[in-house]
Amino acid sequence: MKKYFGLLILLIGFQACQSQQSKGDGSNDGTGKLNRISVFNIADARQFYTWTADRIPMVSAHRGGPYPGFPENAIETFENVLIYTPAIIELDVAMTRDSVLVLMHDDELDRTTNGTGKVNEVSYEYIQSLFLEDMDGQLTDFKVPTLEEALLWSKGKALLTVDIKRSVPFEKVVETVRTTEAVSYAALISYTFPAAKKLHSLAPELMLSITIRNEEEIQRFEETGIPWDRVIAFTGLAERNWEFNEQLHQKGAFTILGVLGNLDRSAIARGDEIYVSFIQNGADILATDRPIEAAAAIRGLVPNQSSKSIYFKNAN
């Protein structure tokens, strides 16, 4: 008999996924129920990210999962994705001239807002005056959120992975995660082992998403001294074989495969069933620009799914 305890994943109103073309009418008017992931403490987060054979495959919404009408790195966009599927939300953090942490991927404001200039050269007051544009360049009514706002909103709704831009001090991000009591659901992204070591020294309690793409990088990670129960293994943007993913699973680590880019385009060209093959080959989380479609494809792999379900992470 299986024993279930610890992490509660609450999936409320699990609606049928719609295509990107028809998705635009799923507006965030507050009437749609959200699919939530609730993590109550850091022990639950570590348990969730510890691999077991009955793990539930998931999607990670790259830059929050932008779609037409929903710009990247916007809270409204995060909410739109959660209408269709529970998800990990990946977001980007930049810092203004007056040291306010905001959600922004680019160094400059021009592509994603109706403003101009570099984020680190303008004030937060100026950024507050702007509106976000979607990926087609259409202006929306949505504002640039602060990291604090995103962390507070996400509590009880989604797990986060936080991509820290080059000019942002790690210390300031860690401080914000701690003061908003987001330690249990906000993992920090690191692309290099020195950066991972620094983040772990600053906040040993936090989960880290660390790039581990081959056996050499497994060894280099182990040389950092960071425990395996603090790591989510990002295996890069190319599919890894089952044997490599199994090595990470034997360490207890979840794998995140970045399907954004070429692999997402392959799914568009060849059919969304390709997402299932990535999961069957050992990917646990698909980091994607198409979270709604990818989630629809892999949903059949989750047992006993219904319109209102409660899942517990299997402890054994």
TrEMBL record:
Gene3D superfamilies: Phosphatidylinositol (PI) phosphodiesterase. CDD domains: GDPD_AtGDE_like. It holds the Pfam family GDPD. GO terms for molecular function: glycerophosphodiester phosphodiesterase activity. One of its GO terms (biological process) is N-acylethanolamine metabolic process. Residues 57-298 form the GP-PDE domain. One of its GO terms (cellular component) is plasma membrane. It comes from the Bacteria. InterPro entries: GP_PDE_dom (IPR030395), PLC-like_Pdiesterase_TIM-brl (IPR017946). This is Glycerophosphoryl diester phosphodiesterase. It comes from Algoriphagus faecimaris.
